[in-house]
Each structure stands twice: as C-alpha cells, then as structure tokens.
Amino acid sequence: MKVLVPVKRVIDYNVKARVKPDGSGVDLANVKMSMNPFGEIAVEEAVRLKEKGVVNEIVVVSIGPSQAQETIRTALAMGADRGILIQTEETVEPLSVAKLLKAVVNEENPEIAILGKQAIDDDANQTGQMLAALLDWPQGTFASKLDIADGKAEVMREVDGGLQTISVELPAVITTDLRLNEPRYASLPNIMKAKRKPIDIKTPDDYGVSLDVRLEQTNVAEPPKREAGIIVESVAELVEKLKNQAGVI
Amino acid sequence: MAILVVGEHDNAHLSDATNKTVTAAIKIGGDVDILIAGENAGDVAAEAAKIEGVRKVLHADGASLAKQMAEAMQALIVPLMGDYDALLAPATTNGKNYLPRIAAALDVMQISEIISVEAPDTFVRPIYAGNAMQTVRSTDKIKVITVRPTAFEAAKTGGGASVTSIDAPAGPFKSTFVGEELTKSDRPELTAAKIVISGGRGMGSGENFVMIERIADKLGAAVGASRAAVDAGYVPNDYQVGQTGKVVAPELYIAVGISGAIQHLAGMKDSKVIVAINKDEDAPIFQVADYGLVADLFKALPELEDAL
Ligand SMILES: Cc1cc2nc3c(=O)[nH]c(=O)nc-3n(C[C@H](O)[C@H](O)[C@H](O)COP(=O)(O)OP(=O)(O)OC[C@H]3O[C@@H](n4cnc5c(N)ncnc54)[C@H](O)[C@@H]3O)c2cc1C
Predict the structure, then answer these.
(1) Which H helix or E strand runs over A128?
(2) Looking at this predicted complex, what is its ipTM?
(3) Domains in chain A and their CATH numbers?
(4) Under a CB-based contact definition with an 8 Å cutoff, are residues B67 and A159 in contact?
(5) What residue in A sits closest to B128 (Cα-Cα)?
(6) Is the pTM of this model over 0.90?
(7) Which is higher by pLDDT, A226 or A183?
(8) Which tens digits make up the pLDDT trace of A50-91?
(9) From the CA of A194, how many Å to the nearest CA of chain B?
(10) Are B159 and B53 in contact (CB under 8 A)?
(11) Span from the CA of B258 to the centroid of ligand 1 (angstroms)
(12) Mutating which of B291, B294, B306 best tests the A interface, going by the most A Cβ atoms within 10 A?
C-alpha cells in the first residue's frame, strides 16, 4: 500500500509571529521555519504503518518555495521514501493545495493520504477535507488513533464531546490530531541517508492547476493587547479582588 | 441575499453555538435560514425555529444524519446551495469536519473561524495562533464560513419561524459510525461557561485535578486543561484549551500550573478576567493575567477552595 503525506513548511511553533507595521502580513524574514507539527505527526504515522508492514511506500509532497525541500528532507530522514516538491513562490490557498494534491493522487494512486489537521500559520483546517471532497474519498479527520485492515481504516477522532470512532473505506483521507503519536527525531545516519533519497521538483503548471486567489487579504493587524495586571500576595487578596474589583465571583 | 446556517446539536438540544452563528449571519445581512440535520431531531428543529431573526428552519431527519458525518452532510447541503449566497457553521469539531468538504465540492475557498464581519464579503479571522488578525475579502460567489462562537453574542429566542421538512440523503456512504466515548460531566460546557478553571502540567497527575474540580463546583465553572495535561493523560482530550483545542472567552479564566505557551494563550486570551497561579514568577502566563499569584498550587488551591 502506498501512502501520500503532504507537509507544509511553516513558522516554527516556538516562534511568536510578528505583524509587519504596514499591515501587509507577518514578518517571516530571518524567522526559523520548520515542518508543520501536525505534518510531522502525519509522517510519523506513515512511518509506523510502514514499520508494521501495512504500507510499503511513503511519498511526501510539499507545495511552496525551494526551501520546502528542507521540509521534505526532514520527512525523508524520518523514514519517508521519496519526495515531490511543487515549487512556487505564490500564496497557495487550501483549495488550490487540495487541487494540486488531487492531481498528485491521480498520478501516484496512493490508498491513503495522511495530512495534518491544520497548519499553524493560517490555522485554516481545510486541506484534508477539501482533498477528500475533490477525490470523492471518505475522510477521517482529527485522528488520535488509526488502524488499517481489510481495505478499511478505523479512525478514532478527537471531537468536542470526547472521542468518536468511525470506519472509512480505503482509499481515504486522514488528518492528524495531537495525540495520534509522538514524532521521532531523525537519527544522524538517517539524515545522511535522506540526502540520497529522490525529490522530484515540479510546478503547479505541470499539474495544470491555476493558483487563483479567492480570498484577497486586505489587512493583517496586531491583536488587541491585554493590559498588564497585578501580582496579588495571597489567596485571600485574590478572592477579595475577584469579588470587589473585578466582580466576577 | 439568503444565508443558510447549519445548526449544532446532539439530536436532543440545540447548542448555543448555533445562536452565535446566527448573529454572524444577521451581521452579513439577508434572509437567514437554519438547517437542522439529525435523527429524531424534531425538538431541535422546534428550538431553532424560536431563534429571533430566522426566516425558516429546514429539518432533514434520517439515520444517515444521526452523527452529521461529512459525506452525508455534503450530500444534503450541496444541492441546497442553489438557493443560498452564504453557508455558515460554527467552528466546532463538527463544523470544521464537514464544512471544508462542502466548500471544495462547491469550488469555494472557505473562510475559517471568523471573529468579525466587516462587510458581506469581508471578514476578520485570527491566524498564527491569534498573534495576527487577518482581514480577507472573498471573491467567491457563495461564501462558506465557519464562525468562532465566542466572538459573537448569542441571538435571542422568542421568534416563531416555520419548519420545513426535507429529505435526508439515502447513502450509502463510504464512512460509518462505530462508537463514541463522550466525557460525562454535570459542569457547564467549556466553551459556553462563564467561569473556566484550567490545569496544566504543574498539576502533576489526574488525581490532583480533583482540587480543580472542587473549586469548579463551588464556582459553577467548567474545567479545562493545557495540551501538556491532556497529553500526560490527566484529563480527556476535550478539555484542551488552545490554538488547536477549544477556544474559550469566559468572564473569568483561572490558569493553574500552566506556563502560558502561545498555543494555550490562543484559546483563552479573550477571556474578560484572567487569573494565573504559578510558582514561577517568570511564567509567560503572568503577562496576560489580570491577577497573578506566584505560589505553589498545592498550597494555593486548597486555600482558594476554603476561601470561596
Ligand atoms: C502544533 C501544536 C499545537 C499545540 N496546541 C496547543 C493547545 O491547543 N493548547 C495548549 O495548551 N497547548 C498546545 N500546544 C502545546 C504548548 O506549546 C505547550 O507545550 C503547552 O501549552 C504547555 O502546557 P503547560 O503550560 O501545562 O506545561 P508547561 O509549559 O510544562 O508548564 C507547566 C507550568 O506549571 C508550573 N508549575 C509546576 N509545578 C507547579 C506547582 N506546584 N505550583 C504552581 N505552578 C507549578 C510551572 O512553573 C510551569 O509554568 C501545542 C503545541 C504544538 C506544537
């Protein structure tokens, strides 16, 4: 079974995004970039499926600038087999990403696509669901457990009320939630080995997908700042303040 | 302009996330209809009909809609969209699951988790864990939008819209419901509670959360947690507050043994009053707290319980 794992290069999760003063976006110059953490979880899950013998090939795909090759290399070092970079400097909205991924699926014919549930930059939480719709595949989103057997995937999902388990026929799209696994760190030998694994460089044109932008960004602003509060000396003072000053208890 | 709002419910009760989404729809302007998709959800449809400002309720009832699974919701909603200019759902795990699927089927780029309506085609949404507020103008003919419920007041009840029955999709679908483990609690729902008290890794164990629960019960509060506390298995996943968990904005948020990572702040920094209890005076949580108490939680929590 072949698995496709799309990953996105994003601001590192430890870095606090800074808004540009002219309102044109977030300043990413000289900022540490990494693989989207939910994408790491997706790669890890694919590697575990391969280690279990369920999967025999892991293809990683990223859409973005040439530096996204580093993101693909990280996935290859974790255990993926080969990469595809669809190179573009443009903004690519989730709908266009889903269209590109659909084209990759049509070429590669994987039986399962595992994606992060959301990218921590645009926080959109859309791409996996959109890909499933475009392919007419079922979807198992926000997965915290994945079992594959008999042409089906059983997916335990993190939902607002707790956990829900569904069964989806393969081929299917799975999106990862935080508790699915803990991604490994690539070992030095695997990092060296990853340097020799192939990465195909493509462009959106190769897939005949136009990157038209449907959401025009008109401004990016700082969120409202909270005013610094006070340090209370005791629980008694805290309760007194909450009662008499804030009036919330 | 006609807008369809998808109601959030468990087949028995309508969630107030629906009322809040209706408010966002009214701000966009036009005729607002609510869709109740469920199984034996007649009471919910009747409840939805009472929301003020609603033109009519569409009620689709059938086994295929019992859990509002994405494929069935797509089969139900896509054919309805010939009559509507916008489709809204609350940004709950349900809405986030089915709405992007429907958007793609309509060839529309969804606008996720809006927190304000600037114009019928222009919306503000948080990005980068709420560290930036993005304003976007949609050029799509149909607008498909998830709404962050905490950012909108709940529409009042008192109206009397009509309820129209429509067919549930027959299927079959390639996904089936197997089971669920829902967290049972008599406390208020986390995203709707007036007071939330959350524990982090500093709690040390699930047993220690009893200290938080006792205070929650005295205050009528909901209990939340950081990711670290959920990952460690102290509490169930649906307690997680943050960028990738639940977003809350109560009158009072009490963070206990939580450091204040950006991902956690993203889910609670719109709370009216924030209290932080942490033994590390340099913990970032104090930068957003209105009242900070630098103390060992194992001493402070029993004192707090006694003082209430
Ligand atoms: C992709 C991604 C998504 C994430 N999403 C979320 C999310 O939605 N929500 C979320 O919360 N996190 C999220 N995180 C995790 C986040 O980055 C932090 O790791 C997490 O919030 C830390 O939880 P914590 O504050 O409980 O633990 P820690 O950071 O370990 O902090 C524990 C705190 O407890 C204090 N403490 C310890 N003992 C005591 C004591 N006896 N008395 C008083 N204080 C004490 C310590 O001083 C410390 O400040 C996400 C991370 C990633 C990468």
Answers:
(1) helix A127-135
(2) 0.97
(3) 2-246 (3.40.50.620)
(4) no
(5) A121
(6) yes
(7) A183
(8) 999 999 999 999 999 999 999 999 999 999 999 999 999 999
(9) 30
(10) yes
(11) 5
(12) B291
